[in-house]
Structures are given as structure tokens and as C-alpha cells.
Amino acid sequence: MERANLDFPNLPFAYQETDYNIRYYFKDGKWSAGELTAEKTINIHMAAVCLHYGQEVFEGLKAYERPDGQVQLFRVEENAKRLQRSAKKLLMEPVPVEIFREAAHRVVAANRRFVPPFDSGATLYLRPFLIGTSAEVGVKPSADYLFMIFVTPVGPYYKAGLTPVKLRVEEEIHRAAPGGVGDIKCGGNYAAGMRATIGAKKDGYSEVLYLDAKENRYIDESGSSNFFAIRGNTLVTPASESILPSITRLSVVQIARDMGMTVEERPLALDELPSFEEAGCLGTAAVITPVELITWRGKDIVYVRDGKPGKKVLELYNRLTAIQKGEAADPYGWTEIVK
Ligand code: PLP
Ligand code: COI
Questions:
Q1: Where are the alpha helices (DSSP H) in the chain?
Q2: How far is 50 from 90, CA to CA, in rounded Å?
Q3: Catalytic residue among 166, 185, 312, 325
Q4: How far is the CA of 59 from the centre of ligand 2 (A)?
Q5: Whose CA is nearest to atom 7 of ligand 2?
């Protein structure tokens, strides 16, 4: 195999063109066979429901090159199931898990030369998405849908690898509210959060921490990842109906329990933050990113003083990423080899 001519160890988290994407159309009550194409644009009606009334849901997962040169996907079934939950909540046609899985395998295999080398610090990011394509002007669910996956090789989302990041508590802007759609992965949630995140980035923060919209007292998550904090042998991660159920978090909770840690998934009040020793962000793009400090009402709650991640965060990171990249055995059945 001839690799794509890219500087893999220095890739940013940004769109990078690859060879193929894959598309499936839902029309007259059935899904088409998948089509691999080199075409980068999509041709949709100007009145498509996705453009006006936001019937758009998506996913994010990664493919990794293993030490033996094979490529593996991480928890593809969980992403497929979450896309179904997202679709159902917006009254969209859910994509069958088997179509999702087939699409992921085919599109990665077709773009093999873009899968970053083992342990290069980069990975192949898959972006599956589903849009309502029927022409409508009344607010109602689309009859027709397009499901696609494109792939792009990426580096770390925040900063290089395990570099600790700064977060700022956001008290004015909310990305989601109880009864809303904060628990699904729809484009509107990200549009809603841009003004908060972009503002925080201008001030030197990597992300904001959103609070619960009802009491402004409990941590929800950041705009692109879930949050966790560690005190002694206990890992606490917020329970909230307005956050995306992170698949990275699901995995880290399991790993932490198997390390003998106590895991608490419960509301996490802001005023508890100073009592923790370590904190981090969890997500496909973010992986496990250590938190250096959190600014709340002008004061800094500091977790990292020497630029290095704390011991527990580092151990969780090492265990998770060893499974993801095929360096350690996968006792959980989370990975599958791309054929
Ligand atoms: N929360 C939000 C808002 C996200 O965009 C993501 C990224 O997918 C996550 C959490 C983490 O979820 P996962 O670990 O499944 O990628
Ligand atoms: C992911 O981690 O897969 C996401 O979708 C987050 C996004 C902001 C890049």
C-alpha cells in the first residue's frame, strides 16, 4: 500500500480531502445499496427539510492502524445505535445498524491510504450523517433521507496529545435544556454553542463548560466532550438529560471500574470542583484531555501545575488508547477489524 503524502504526526483536527465517501438513499420506504463515490458535493433540493428545519443528525468515530498493519474501528455499533436514537428523536428515518456498519467498513477500506500510521498521534475520523432531503415548506418530517459517511485523517482536537487545556464555566449561554435535544447529536446543538465556544477560544480557553439550564448550578458538558473529575479513587461524571451520552465516557467508566475505581454518574455541582484533584474531557475527538484549570467567576480552579496530566487521568488515557489502537488486548469486544 502506498500511503497518502501527508505529514501524519502534525495533522490538525481539520477537514482533509480523501478518495471516497459512501452514500445510501432512503426513498419509497427503503434504503438503497451503498454507493462509493469520489464526488465531494451533494445535490439536494433548495427546499430540503434539513436546510430549513434542521433534520440533520451525525456521528463521529475513528479508525486506527494496529501494530500488525490491520485497521480497526472502535465501538462502531454504539455509534450506529446513537445515530438511531438521534434520528428517532427528530422523527427521521433511523439507519439500520447493519447499513451503518457496512458503510463504515467500506469507506475505511476504500480510503486505506489515508489511515494514519500506528501510533503517529493521528487517526482516521469518520463522519457519518443523515439528512432529510424531501422538499417541504411546512414544518414536518422529511419522507426521503440521505445517509453518508466521509472520512478525514485528523490530529488531536484540542492540543497536542495529552497537553492539559483550560476551560471556562459558561453561565449565560446554554447549549441545551431539559426536554430539549441536548442528548442527541444534531447539528443545531453545535450552532447553538458556537457563540460561547468561539468567545472562550478568543480568551485562550479550549472550550466552555455548560451548566444545567434550570438551576445554573450543575455541570453539563463542554461543547464537544463530556466532563469528569477525580478525587482519590473516585471518578465523578455528570448525569444530566441534556448531555450527549459519550461513547468514550462509557468506555472510560468501564475501564475505571476495572482499575478498581469507584465511579459516580450523578449531578456534579460547580461548588464541588475545588475538591477534585484531577479533571478531564472525554470524547472521540477529545479522547481524554486533561484539564489544567477551570475559570469560574474570574477565579481559577487549578488541577495541573507542571503541564503534565495527573496520574489517574494518564492511566485511563494509556489503557483506553492502547485498546483503541490495537496495542493491548480488547477484553470488551469494542474493536472490529476492517475487512
Ligand atoms: N458531548 C458532545 C457535545 C460531543 O460533541 C461529543 C463528541 O462526540 C461528546 C460529548 C463525546 O461523545 P463520544 O465520546 O461518543 O465521541
Ligand atoms: C466527536 O468527538 O466525534 C465530535 O463530534 C465532536 C466534534 C465537535 C468534533
A1: 49-53, 76-89, 97-110, 187-202, 247-258, 311-324
A2: 11
A3: 185
A4: 8
A5: 224
The stretch 99-125 carries a mean pLDDT of: 98
Percent of the chain exceeding pLDDT 90 equals 98
Local structure of 245: helix, strand or coil: coil
**Ligand 1 pocket check: which of 59, 158, 175, 185 to mutate, most ligand atoms within 8 Å of Cβ?**
185
Provide the β-strand partners of residue 238. Answer: 266
Q: Return the ligand number nearest the Cα of 285.
A: 2
- Amino acid present at 197: T
Tens of pLDDT, residue by residue over 131-155, are 999 999 999 999 999 999 999 999 9
User: Alpha carbon 37 to chain centroid distance?
Assistant: 25
Band of residue 27 on the pLDDT scale cut at 50, 70, 90 = very high
What is the C-alpha separation between 233 and 277, in angstroms, rounded? 10
34 lines ligand 1 (CB under 6 A): no
**Domains with residue ranges and CATH for the chain:** 8-154 (3.30.470.10), 165-324 (3.20.10.10)
d(CA 275, CA 291): 14
